[in-house]
């Protein structure tokens, strides 16, 4: 007499021909309606978005390079050039830092202005920063020969600020297609259809055997979909991402049983770090798909968060089966790397590597 409670895998096999769609997405009724044809104002990057270490370093290097070249025209020898460059750098450094600080603090109201007004604000702020820095340096010098030429300082500051703003404007325009592409890829890869089918079939198999457990599976799935189809926030906390990854692995734990072994090593101090939404779930899903599912004996996944040097470090390590799974397209990994770059620039790190019989993914974001 056949069993009245088929296993989740056999149930999925029996129903696959009926419920599996012919395409790999959810269709126009779900994701196409969520993916805008053009980026909305919320998605657009402000030109004054300079609150990144990479932008600050590039701005400082550019201005100091201009100063170094400029003082060459009035220096007779290397010693004179170095003395002039040191004096110029003493004025340029605080001026650039003040300009970047004000631009960062006021990026939202400045970014809401029309482009001509943004140009005007950037140049006026540059002139004011350079003039104030030059006069401050002059006041602090005990043997200053004469007052600094305020008009020359203002024009130099305005010109350099205009050049930096032009670079920021071109940078924002260049990043907009990448931002849109990364968002669309995120929307289309949030929940894979096969995961949905497996989860529903698992819940169906548990309805008569363990209704409470089936209800828990559906609650976890509902939470995953609530986050997946909700309007994306600019960023979420690492603690929220970990909670979502736990729900995903709780579903997979029922499907794989003892074949899936998960270890969590969580540092509460790292939970406040900000990152793009739905960043960990595709990484954990990759670990299940390529580290656990192909192995007959299953596999191990270890997720660890910690704080190191003022940054949050997330490590996802999964065992690698003897017979490797079919290689994927790497879309999830590329998408994670691109979204981290768009949000944190050089302040974030994303590394993947194989170490013996394990595969390691490491994400580093500022706290």
How does this structure look, described?
There is one protein chain. By secondary structure, this protein is of the alpha+beta class. Among the domains are: 53-184, no CATH class; 257-367, Histidine kinase-like ATPase, C-terminal domain (Heat Shock Protein 90, 2-Layer Sandwich). It has helices at residues 8-19, 28-34, 53-70, 78-105, 107-111, 115-140, 150-188, 193-209, 211-229, 238-256, 280-292, 331-344, and strands at 236-237, 260-265, 274-275, 299-308, 311-319, 349-355, 358-366. The termini are far apart.
Q: Overall pLDDT, averaged? A: 77
Number of E strands: 7
Q: State the separation between the terminal residues, measured CA to CA.
A: 60 Å
Strand order of the largest sheet: 2-4-5-7-6
Fraction in beta strands: 5-15%
Helix content: 55-70%
- Structural class label: alpha+beta
The sequence of SSEs as H and E is HHHHHHHHHEHEEHEEHEE
What is the strand and helix layout of this fold?
Blueprint: H1 8-19, H2 28-34, H3 53-70, H4 78-105, H5 107-111, H6 115-140, H7 150-188, H8 193-209, H9 211-229, E1 236-237, H10 238-256, E2 260-265, E3 274-275, H11 280-292, E4 299-308, E5 311-319, H12 331-344, E6 349-355, E7 358-366
Parallel strand pairs: 2-4
Antiparallel strand pairs: 1-3, 4-5, 5-7, 6-7
Helix pairs in contact: 1-8, 3-4, 4-6, 6-7, 7-12, 8-9, 9-10, 10-11
